[in-house]
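Database export, one record per block. Field names are fixed; values are copied verbatim from the stored entry.
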Amino acid sequence: FRSKQEAAVFAWMIDAAQWREHRMQTKYGAVTLHPGELLIAERQLAEDFGLARNTLRALLQRMVEDRILDRIEDRAPHRAGTVLRILNYQSYQQVDSRPVLVQ
């Protein structure tokens, strides 16, 4: 990532992504999200992280090109938002159960 803000956006996405299938209602219609997916409003997300909307869009495009995210084009009703899928989502959710040795 090019900045701490960009890394924070991705960390937020991991936290906000669905951990199980979920059907949510928007004012534009229902959207079904699968594990590792989230529905975002680009304008609001950019504002929340103090980024210009074009900067956020460029970040999302880089993450798609780097195979970190997929953009799901056909699942959300028009204007409901952007559905993103975090690739390898499960690898971010695994907990290492090995004991930690403290010295």
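Remark 1: The CA atoms of residues 91 and 97 lie 14 Å apart.
Remark 2: The two ends are 33 Å apart (CA to CA).
End of record.
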